[in-house]
Amino acid sequence: MKLITSIVPHDKGERLTKAAMESGCRGGTVLIGRGLAKSNLMAVLGLGESTKDVIMMILEDSVMEPVFNTILRATSKEKRNFGEIFVTDVDAFFRSGNDGIKRDEKGDNNDGTERKGKTMNEMICAIVNKGYADDVMAAARKAGAGGGTVVSARGTARETDEQFFGTHIVPEKEMLIIIVPAEKKDSVLQSIRELKCLKEPGMGIAYSTPVENFGLLGKRG
Question: How far is CA 45 from CA 93, 152, 208, in A?
Fold first, then answer.
């Protein structure tokens, strides 16, 4: 299974989902996100932020390429840098109402062969307490990242967890998604890790995963 994630201007997500379904995708989920400025200067000036649709579609590996190419074609007449699209692995998946779990063991392909080659890009995902995503983005930019997208979220912690762990837990979260060149992944993660606001337990987590396919949506040239 693969996860295709597209990030486009607000109210454009339904168009991408419709195009994807016409080429073999069974559906998707559209989340509302917030695009962040690509430089700290623009962020200070209050420029470069915008509302985004984040479309997430899980589909079989066999239809990933047709769906990916259909989305590229469906947005080819939009303005340059209209959005971005990338693909990541899903190693386990189940659908409600079914008993089985589809799982990709040991990082192998579905035909049993080992994946080869290095990824050119990585997705860095940071999940932090509400209000700290901009600080994380600023640290990431210092290490060479461009812009990012913030999605509002909430934690699943119970009220009793605060007393049990002795840690102040804030249910309201922000999920920051950044795509960076693979060679910058370590420096970006290290820059995020060194933030003072993330020194205390319970303030957030960050992880990375390889991006198989990445492309910009909109006009070429």
Answer: 43, 23, 29
Rounded Cα gap, residues 17 and 75, in angstroms: 12
pLDDT (tens digit per residue) in 65-85: 999 999 999 999 898 889 999
Q: List, in order, residues 6 or more apart from 88 with CB less than 8 Å away.
A: 2, 3, 5, 123, 209, 210, 211, 212
CB atoms within 10 A of CB 80: 10
Q: Where are the beta strands (DSSP E) in 10-63?
A: 29-35, 50-59
- Please count the residues of the chain: 221
pLDDT category of residue 116 using cuts at 50, 70 and 90: very low
Give the list of residues 6+ apart from residue 155 with CB closer than 8 angstroms, or none.
169, 170, 171, 172, 173
Helix (H, G, I), strand (E, B) or coil at 65: helix
Q: Which H or E run contains 151? A: strand 149-154
Q: Is 17 exposed, middle or buried (0-12, 13-18, 19+ CB in 10 A)?
A: buried
pLDDT given at position 106: 42
